[in-house]
Amino acid sequence: MGYLETIREFVVDNFLFGEDGKLEEETSFLESGIIDSTGILELIAFLEETYGLEIEDEDIIPENFDSLTNIVRFLEGKLSPSPGAAGRMENLTRRG
What global pTM score does this model have? Predict the structure, then answer.
């Protein structure tokens, strides 16, 4: 199951009580009243546990967590290695 499906399932089960009829990928959680600020914290705890990452306070902004699309984009950025990371790691390995 991909990011989108996993997160949709969590939101539907925990905030929509199993009814996902109005949940589109671009639906704003806050504007539509699906998730409030406390719910965002629950969602973040779920993402940290599910994907083994630590979400920094400065990352907790609507642009990252206010829709399924925003969350998937945020996760892809956090979980994908940066383009130069492999090369930097290789250089560190050679030096050691």
Answer: 0.79
